[in-house]
Amino acid sequence: MLARSLLLARAGAARLARGGCDFVSVRGRALPLRVQRRRPLSRAFSARKPSPSEEEEDSDDESESEDESEGESEGHWSGVDPYYLSRRGVGIAGRVLSRMPDFFRWSEARAFSPRAPDEARSAMFVLTQFPRNTRVDLLEFRDACEQLVHALYERMYAERDACAAYFTDVTADAAAAAQLSDKAARQAARFAAGGRRVRLEQLSVNRVAIASVDYTSELLAPDERGDGENEWLEVTVHFDVTEHLLLASDGVGLDDRKSINTTFAWTFEANVTQPEAVEWWIAAVTPFAETSALLTAASASDSTE
């Protein structure tokens, strides 16, 4: 399932250019409306520490839920609905125990961000076991994202008008679309004088790593605690790449090429209720953090000395 959705080798890149990629769904544009319709549990399950503002929102939500449900217990120490734990805990625990070899395999292959502590890595693994019917192999996901970044970078440096229209369709947010579609224009304004166009000559992927996993569940019948449930996973991936740019048509001059180290994060989201219907799309992006590759190499050399 996931391999089918994420396979973006050269043939997949061609499909992506035609707007036919399974990985980034045009239905991502409906994401803001769908998020508003969610009624998540008292606390979403996350492998990352919530910000102070998120913690404040959680406390407000918990106080409201307590007012709505008189006579219920104060809740589990984790902040998760006790009914949810009693209904799903045994199944989740069984999947976690039976799939522990996957966790060790992911860790040995360095699928997780090197900045993630052991506790966060364990939480990411556990959260992938929360969905009832869908399993997400984070190592496979990481490898597919490495192929995906090559394909999307080709789109970023394509003709600007076509690029802007494409990313408007495949991202869930207008700001994210602008961040991706304006990439080449920003580089041209930064490096290319006299109206020269910047072309991507080569992209070197230095590192792709899973940074966080989030799980959200919604009961289909919130007033009647039945078995009907919608489930979502969010996976945030950190990228570290080097862009080798060609600033002139001949590429002969010393200043006609630039190498830029770029780091950024993309968050992918999918409804994982039914394995056969899983489609991932880009839900959020961070700004591109860029430094000269020469400066980065010099800094690394100084540190080793």
Verbal overview:
The chain is α+β, with helices and mostly antiparallel strands and 305 residues long. The protein has one domain. Helix content is 44%, strand content 21%. It contains twelve helices and six strands. Strands 1, 2, 3, 4, 5 and 6 form a six-stranded antiparallel β-sheet that branches. It is elongated, with a radius of gyration of 22 Å. The N terminus and C terminus are likely disordered.
Short descriptors:
305 residues, alpha+beta, 6-stranded antiparallel sheet, disordered C terminus
Helix and strand topology:
Elements: H1 2-6, H2 10-17, H3 31-37, E1 45-46, H4 52-68, H5 82-98, H6 100-108, H7 118-128, H8 138-156, H9 160-170, H10 174-181, H11 183-191, E2 199-219, E3 229-246, E4 257-271, E5 281-285, E6 289-292, H12 293-304
Antiparallel strand pairs: 1-2, 2-3, 3-4, 4-5, 4-6
Helix pairs in contact: 2-8, 9-10
State the gist of this model.
The chain has twelve helices and six strands. With 305 residues, it is α+β, with helices and mostly antiparallel strands. It is elongated.
